[in-house]
Amino acid sequence: MVREKITVSTRTLQWKCVESAADSKRLFYGRFILSPLMKGQADTIGIAMRRALLGEIEGTCITRAKFEKISHEYSTIMGIQESVHEILMNLKEIVLRSNLYGTCEASICVRGPGYVTAQDIILPPYVEIVDNTQHIATLTEPIELVIGLQIEKNRGYLIKAPNTFQDGSYPIDPVFMPVRNANHSIHSYENGNKEILFLEIWTNGSLTPKEALHEASRNLIDLLIPFLHTKEENLNLEDNQHMIPLPPFTFYDKLAKLTKNKKKNGVEIDFY
């Protein structure tokens, strides 16, 4: 068994990239450490960072495709090897990088015979394809394939309605997560009193693992900043048209029941 040796900070809290690799244009890997941490802190940070990496980073995806004169998603087009459904699944796999806010339009217009790949997508200048070789369709005859596309930047995973939109286009369930996977592990030293946090990050190529780490950290900090305010914000609830009904708060009911049971057993409870 080979033991890995790395140099870590013993006084000042610091992070460091200890390994990075690019297996392909659509698979990047990075491993990072944060140290020194007190006992229990590595797990606290690791769990929060993993959730932020997987759920709080925005990605760009194709979310809708419009074909000409297609009756339903499982139709076949004369002169095209793939069905409409297979083309939609191929479009779903296209990895994009962008400075987009909201949605934009793109298109494909290709004449066969030949292969249709990601490089045939006509994009606005602020959207970029990570891997131009990704396959979309195979044209076996001299026909024209025209597809209108909608591109969106968002986060998480969305399930679109199964039916078509009013304009006859077909929804694509997008996965807006640039981070494919994230793991954390902990190494203890000094008799378990100090810890080193290890973070492993795999991305789809639209972000490097280091960029993903920075963005997840920034987004996590933004979520916690409101708690740093010493006073609660004075919200005008009377003008709020989006009031949310809350379930009954049963703390005092449970407290009264607990106190009653304790008194029956001859135990007094003091609350400070």
Automatic annotation (TrEMBL):
<dbReference type="GO" id="GO:0046983">
    <property type="term" value="F:protein dimerization activity"/>
</dbReference>
<dbReference type="GO" id="GO:0000428">
    <property type="term" value="C:DNA-directed RNA polymerase complex"/>
</dbReference>
<comment type="function">
    <text>DNA-dependent RNA polymerase catalyzes the transcription of DNA into RNA using the four ribonucleoside triphosphates as substrates.</text>
</comment>
<keyword id="KW-0934">Plastid</keyword>
<dbReference type="GO" id="GO:0009507">
    <property type="term" value="C:chloroplast"/>
</dbReference>
<dbReference type="GO" id="GO:0003899">
    <property type="term" value="F:DNA-directed RNA polymerase activity"/>
</dbReference>
<dbReference type="InterPro" id="IPR036603">
    <property type="entry name" value="RBP11-like"/>
</dbReference>
<keyword id="KW-0804">Transcription</keyword>
<feature type="domain" description="DNA-directed RNA polymerase RpoA/D/Rpb3-type">
    <location>
        <begin position="29"/>
        <end position="230"/>
    </location>
</feature>
<dbReference type="GO" id="GO:0006351">
    <property type="term" value="P:DNA-templated transcription"/>
</dbReference>
<dbReference type="InterPro" id="IPR036643">
    <property type="entry name" value="RNApol_insert_sf"/>
</dbReference>
<comment type="similarity">
    <text>Belongs to the RNA polymerase alpha chain family.</text>
</comment>
<keyword id="KW-0808">Transferase</keyword>
<keyword id="KW-0548">Nucleotidyltransferase</keyword>
<dbReference type="Pfam" id="PF01193">
    <property type="entry name" value="RNA_pol_L"/>
</dbReference>
<protein>
    <recommendedName>
        <fullName>DNA-directed RNA polymerase</fullName>
        <ecNumber>2.7.7.6</ecNumber>
    </recommendedName>
</protein>
<dbReference type="InterPro" id="IPR011262">
    <property type="entry name" value="DNA-dir_RNA_pol_insert"/>
</dbReference>
<keyword id="KW-0240">DNA-directed RNA polymerase</keyword>
<keyword id="KW-0150">Chloroplast</keyword>
<dbReference type="InterPro" id="IPR011263">
    <property type="entry name" value="DNA-dir_RNA_pol_RpoA/D/Rpb3"/>
</dbReference>
<dbReference type="Pfam" id="PF01000">
    <property type="entry name" value="RNA_pol_A_bac"/>
</dbReference>
